[in-house]
Amino acid sequence: MTLTRSELELDYSLDRASIAAFAEHGFVKLKRVLSPATIAAYEEEITSKVIELNTQHLPLEERDTYGKAFLQVMNLWQDSEPVLEFVSSPRLARIAAQLLGVRSVRLYHDQALYKESGGGVTPWHADQYYWPFATDRCVTVWIPLQETPLEMGPLAFAAGSHAFEHGRDLPISDESERVLQAALAERDFPEVVEPYELGEVSYHLGWTFHHAAPNNTDVPRRVMTIIYVDAAMEIAPPANSFQESDLADWMPGNAAGEQISSPLNPVLYST
Questions:
Q1: Domain-by-domain residue ranges, the chain?
Q2: Residues 109-154 pLDDT 10s
Q3: What is the 8-class DSSP label of residue 5?
C-alpha cells in the first residue's frame, strides 16, 4: 500500500464553487479525488472484508426492501489495517471539514454498501434520521470502487432537500420511497442522478434526501462510505430506537448532552 498511501495524505484542491454548490444543494460530486491505482490497491481488501463480515445470507427474493437494497457492513476499519489506512485518510477528511465549514472532523463510522447484481431500489431517505446529533454538521463521502454507470444504481440526490423537514421521521422503507417521491416532486426539488467515473466521489449532508435505482448489471456495485462529524458535535437525546442503537454501538461510553469522544470516533483532520 506504500505507493498509494501517500495520495490519501495529500491535500485535494477544493475550489470555492464546489463549496458553494455543497451549501446550496446539500451534496457535491468531485472528480479525480482518488486515482485508479489507489482504488485498486484498497478495493480487494475492502471487498474481502465485506465477504468475511457480511451476515446477510437470505436469497434476494426472500429479503425485505431494505435487505434487497444492499449488503451493509460497518466499521471495517476495526478488522483491517489497510482499511484503517483508507478510512483515516487526511485527504478525504479535510474535504469533509472544508465542506462543513468546521475546524476539525471526527469519524462517526464507516460502512460498505454493496448492491448485488439484481439488487433492488434504495428508497428515498435522509441518513440523519438514524443519528443522534445536535446539529446538521455531518457528512458522508460515497466512494464507488468501480466505474458506476446508471444501470448499476448510482446515488441520486434531491438537490436542496437538506432544508426540507418533511419526511425526516421516516426510516428507509417502501413508505419512505412512496411518501418522499411525491413530496420532493411536489416541492420541485430536482433529482440529480449521474454516473460516477472511477475516482469520482460525492459528499452529502445528513439531511439531504437521496436514493438509488436497482443494480441491473451482472456485477456488484461496490461502494465504501465514511461518515464524518464536526469534532465538537454534541450528542442529542435519541429520537427513535435506531438512534438509541447508534449511540450504544458507535459512540460507546458517551451519553446525550456530551460531546462525541469515544475511542471509536477519533479526530481525522484538524486545522
A1: 2-254
A2: 999 999 999 999 999 999 999 999 999 999 999 999 999 999 999 9
A3: H
Residue found by looking up cell 440529480 in the block: 192
Please list the ranges in the chain whose pLDDT falls under 50.
Answer: 1-3
Fold held by 2-254: Jelly Rolls (2.60.120)
- Three-state secondary structure call for residue 260: coil
Instruction: Report the first-to-last Cα separation within the chain, whole angstroms.
Output: 26
DSSP type of residue 139:
E
User: Cell 485518510 sits at which residue?
Assistant: 89
Q: Which of 129, 132, 125 is nearest to 108 (CA)?
A: 132
Question: Whole-model pTM?
Answer: 0.95
Q: Are 96 and 269 within 8 A, CB to CB? A: yes
Q: Report whether 233 contacts 257 (CB < 8 A).
A: no
Identify residue 186 by its one-letter amino acid code.
E
Q: Which residue has the cell 472544508?
A: 98
